Amino acid sequence: MIKNITPYKILVIEDNPGDFAIIEEYLHEEFLKPVIHQVSTFKEAKLLLAGIKMYFDVILLDLSLPDRSGMELISEMITLSLDCPIIVLTGYADISFSVKSLSLGISDYLLKDDLSSVPLYKSILYSIERKKTLSTLEESEKRYSDLFHLSPQPMWVFELDTLRFLDVNDAAIKHYGYTREEFLQMTIDQLVLEEDIEKLNQIITASKQQEQFFFRGVISHKTKSGATIYVEIHSNKILFKARQARLSLVSDVTERIKYIKAIEKQNEKLQEISWIQSHVVRAPLARMMGIVNLIKDLKVVTPEGSQLLKHFDESATELDNVIRDIANKSHQISIDNLIV
Predict the structure, then answer these.
(1) Rounded Cα gap, residues 105 and 282, in angstroms
(2) Judgement on whether residues 297 and 188 belong to the same structural domain of the protein
(3) Of 230, 245, 326, 332, which is least packed with CB atoms within 10 Å of its CB?
(4) Would you place residue 23 in the very low, low, confident or very high pLDDT band (cuts 50, 70, 90)?
């Protein structure tokens, strides 16, 4: 028979020497080198766990000790054990009591009369592994909580079915002006301006139909003070406390939107200037150049006049090129502004 080689530290709280001897024998049958520590009273257990603060992988607890017993013993042991799993060993088959003890946080409830090495071994391993899994899950939830609540950017979670806020971080509270309690009484559409309600409805519908796991886009919001802001939303579907929800990261892009609108307005003016330069200014210039050519064709100009016409024509051509250059640069600035 292959024994488990992990040197688990096991605390056995048992006042009956005969029962402890049997438990010890069962443990040695399944574990190669178990580190077994035995106490016979609650006071001794408390000294180890709260006073000396010894660490154990699992605690085997008899429910009938000289100084504590029953539910009172279970409650105090759970407080003392912290993250250590507790397996109750008892001689009394009370179903309602066992269910209640499990609901308080006991890992398992075994009857001494039905006990053997294999079920005890399985219970110990399952209890230890279950505790590890729960600890990993709790650590993961803590990391999520820290990332969520300590984020400098506004974040929230809202339920897909009701659109109600399920959680909101401090940055969102500060940015929007609502208290946490006010947020948790609101729905996501109460933040959205009327002009973007249809956009929100489309996003929610797509999310419910499993068509859109991730969303990124700009939408208009209003703060508690009534101010209009534009925000870029990065949103993912998540399962939050057994509810279908969306986790949203919010970036305020109001200043960027204002800048873009200012650039667009400037571009309109530049395009207007470019049109005036290309059409209004160049039109009379073109007529002047045409008149010069007409005079040349009539051949009624003296040599001195021809020289003057030549200079006039060259100056008009040069001015036409300058106007074209200005118009082209105005057009290019408009394009560059749009790219920015």
Answers:
(1) 89
(2) no
(3) 332
(4) very high
Same domain, yes or no: 157 and 138: no
d(CA 110, CA 240): 35
Tell which of 116, 143, 170 closes a domain.
143
Alpha helices in 150-253 (DSSP H): 170-176, 180-184, 197-208
Beta pairing, strands 108-111 & 155-159: unpaired
- Calpha distance 314→305 (Å, rounded): 14
**Is 115 found in the same domain as 198?**
no
Number of structural domains in the chain: 3
Q: Is the dihedral of CA 72, 70, 9, 128 positive or negative?
A: negative
Distance (Å, whole) CA 52 – CA 60: 19
Contact 58, 46 (CB under 8 A): no
| The pLDDT value given to residue 340 | 47
At 287, list the tokens: 């007529």
Is residue 247 situated within a structural domain?
Answer: yes
Q: For position 337, what pLDDT does the model report?
A: 53
Mean pLDDT over 138-153 rounds to 83
- Note the pTM of the prediction, 2 decimals: 0.54
Residues 25 and 113 placed together within one structural domain of the fold: yes
Range of the domain at 75: 9-143
Residues 6+ apart with CB under 8 A from 235: 203, 214, 215, 216, 246, 247, 248, 249
Give the model's pLDDT for residue 277.
Answer: 60
C-beta separation of 225 from 264 below 8 A: no
- The answer to which of 68-72, 167-171, 231-235, 335-339 has the lowest mean pLDDT is 335-339
* Calculated CA dihedral for residues 162, 167, 170, 172, nearest 10 degrees: -30
Among 178, 232, 237, 212, CA closest to 168:
178
